[in-house]
């Protein structure tokens, strides 16, 4: 199969939604019966985003084969049937690392190694790698046109058109058409200048996706087409929408898929977006609502939890409710009156993260959920914190902790993965990717999945210490999931609770809008059930979560 190529670039400013645009193009082409694959190029020099701060990069999305990748790959998997792997995300750092390794081995036979042809050839090789066995390869170029670091990637895709021909390569440029309130006008000049930048390096876009807050009138489209040398029908309004799943519908309404198959000379059937349209209608029609508190470390930058937020939307859809997510900074629960911040929620979720900042607040959130019988889901770090909280406040293990937070703890109920001891490098040194787990019949997890064996994606450096298993289990903590060889604990639960589950893996990475993840479906369902019981508040005579924490500390002395 000889694939055709669509290259998606962005101009004017960053964060215009190139990733969503690429994912939506994939969605539309699949709706026409085509098989697609996607690739994201990132121009930074990190080999992968695994060691980057969530505040700088956002979420690190993990694939089945253990690659730590850009969050746009999450959009690709949620919007299409393509399964992402390591080769679907490539950084400038990885390109240069490959080239330098080849040069050190002598692969270039004494030649001078240069950006052209060696760097661009390596980029083109990465593109061809994802294009086998598909009809269309969609390639997103990270960064903004005009950035120095993205120039080798732009030169490589310019060469691709030279080599493949115009009928096999399509350039889609995402740009901005701002509305100026003071003058009441839409301005096309940013788009004109962005296209001018592209043309200066030899790329003429075929289709323009114009980000704007309103549909572009015909005269504006005509003006953009004239000054940017594209057909008027190829000027597509990429209007702001209420939720991201409306994007393919809006772009289809503008005729984007029609223009793509026209430009590439592909004869395909009509675009069948009925399942997607039904999804959007259901989202718009949700009347009922549950409120979920997310107690996290990176809530100031919600892109850090992109897949998590979407998985909650999917779980809400499965229960026909809208999920109102309230982000609580974990450190904000470390002061007085912290319990008031958690009152009134239907569920509490503690997500993943690294480092000891905010841990006391997370532990308080877990205590509140456990003692007040509020549905709780702990993911990765959230699961580990649930074990620490239970060890301290139920088992009476004073000072129980993770060796990540306190290397001298007397009770390291969470400790470093045994195969990583002695390894101090951070990049790629974790338990990564898809691992199999077996579930305990009758557990919350088994009821959610409806099967005894599952496969989920992981990203962690610390694990449950099974030396403390007997003590924890004797006091009511249940091991609901473990690896088939019984090496690792994957899921813990508190059965004396409406729904309390912590998982070592990241279920959010496998949730899809048309196929919600079982754990999020069950968690939101439990939150909905809890909301129906909330008018029966706990009496004033009942001990508070803070009093129970104090009791646990005293009993362990």
Strand content: 15-25%
Number of discrete helical segments: 19
Radius of gyration: 26 Å
- Secondary structure: helix percent: 25-40%
Structural class: alpha/beta
- Number of E strands: 23
Shape: globular
- What summary fits the major beta sheet? 9 strands, mixed
Mean pLDDT: 91
Strand arrangement in the largest pleated sheet: 13-12-14-15-23-22-21-18-19
- First and last CA, distance: 70 Å
Which regions contain 5 or more consecutive residues with pLDDT less than 50?
Answer: 536-542, 551-557
Please describe what this structure looks like.
This protein is an alpha/beta fold and 557 residues long. Helix content is 36%, strand content 21%. The strands form 5 sheets. Strands 13-12-14-15-23-22-21-18-19 form a 9-stranded mixed sheet, sandwiched between helices. The chain has a 7-stranded parallel sheet with strand order 5-2-6-1-7-10-11, sandwiched between helices. Strand 22 and strand 23 form a beta hairpin. The longest helix is centred in the last third of the chain and has 16 residues, at 518-533. 50% of the residues are buried.
């Amino acid at each position: 199969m000889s694939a055709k190529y669509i290259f998606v670039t962005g101009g004017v400013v960053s964060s215009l939604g190139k990733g969503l645009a690429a994912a939506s193009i994939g969605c539309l082409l699949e709706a026409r019966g085509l098989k697609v694959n996607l690739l994201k190029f990132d121009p930074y020099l990190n080999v992968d985003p695994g060691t980057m701060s969530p505040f700088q990069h956002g979420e690190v999305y993990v694939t089945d084969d253990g690659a730590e990748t850009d969050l746009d790959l999450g959009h690709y998997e949620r919007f299409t049937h393509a399964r992402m792997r390591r080769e679907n995300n490539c950084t400038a750092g990885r390109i240069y690392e490959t080239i330098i390794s080849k040069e050190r081995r002598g692969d270039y036979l004494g030649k001078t190694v240069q950006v052209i042809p060696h760097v661009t050839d390596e980029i083109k090789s990465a593109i061809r790698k994802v294009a086998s066995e598909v009809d269309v390869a969609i390639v997103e170029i990270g960064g903004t046109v005009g950035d120095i670091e993205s120039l080798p990637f732009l030169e490589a895709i310019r060469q691709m058109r030279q080599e493949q021909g115009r009928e096999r390569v399509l350039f889609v440029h995402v740009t901005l058409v701002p509305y100026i309130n003071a003058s009441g006008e839409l301005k096309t000049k940013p788009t004109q200048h962005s296209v001018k930048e592209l043309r200066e390096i030899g790329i003429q876009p075929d289709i323009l996706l114009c980000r704007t807050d309103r549909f572009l009138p015909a005269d504006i489209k005509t003006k953009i087409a004239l000054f940017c040398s594209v057909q008027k029908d190829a000027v597509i309004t990429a209007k702001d929408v209420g939720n991201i799943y409306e994007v393919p519908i809006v772009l289809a309404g503008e005729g984007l898929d029609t223009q793509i198959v026209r430009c590439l000379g592909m004869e395909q059937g009509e675009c069948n977006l009925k399942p997607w349209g039904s999804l959007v209608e259901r989202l718009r029609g949700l009347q009922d609502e549950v409120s979920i508190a997310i107690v996290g470390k990176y809530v100031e930058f919600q892109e850090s939890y992109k897949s998590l937020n979407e998985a909650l939307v999917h779980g809400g859809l499965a229960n026909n409710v809208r999920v109102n997510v309230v982000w609580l900074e974990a450190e904000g629960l470390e002061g007085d009156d912290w319990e008031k911040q958690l009152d009134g929620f239907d569920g509490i979720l503690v997500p993943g993260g690294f480092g000891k900042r905010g841990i006391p607040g997370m532990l308080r959130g877990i205590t509140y959920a456990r003692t007040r019988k509020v549905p709780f889901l702990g993911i990765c770090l959230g699961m580990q914190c649930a074990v620490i909280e239970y060890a301290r406040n139920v088992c009476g293990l004073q000072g129980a902790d993770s060796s990540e937070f306190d290397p001298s703890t007397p009770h390291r109920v969470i400790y470093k993965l045994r195969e990583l001891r002695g390894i101090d490098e951070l990049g790629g040194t974790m338990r990564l990717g898809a691992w199999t787990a077996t579930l305990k019949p009758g557990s919350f997890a088994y009821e959610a999945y409806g099967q005894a064996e599952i496969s989920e994606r992981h990203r962690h450096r610390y694990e449950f210490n099974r030396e403390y298993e007997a003590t924890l289990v004797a006091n009511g903590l249940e091991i609901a999931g473990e690896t088939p060889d019984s090496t690792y604990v994957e899921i813990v639960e508190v059965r004396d609770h409406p729904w309390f589950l912590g998982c070592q893996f990241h279920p959010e990475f496998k949730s899809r809008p048309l196929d919600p993840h079982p754990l999020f479906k069950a968690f939101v369902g439990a939150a909905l059930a809890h909301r129906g019981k909330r008018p029966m508040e706990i009496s004033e005579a009942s001990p508070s979560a803070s009093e129970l924490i104090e009791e646990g500390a005293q009993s362990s002395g």
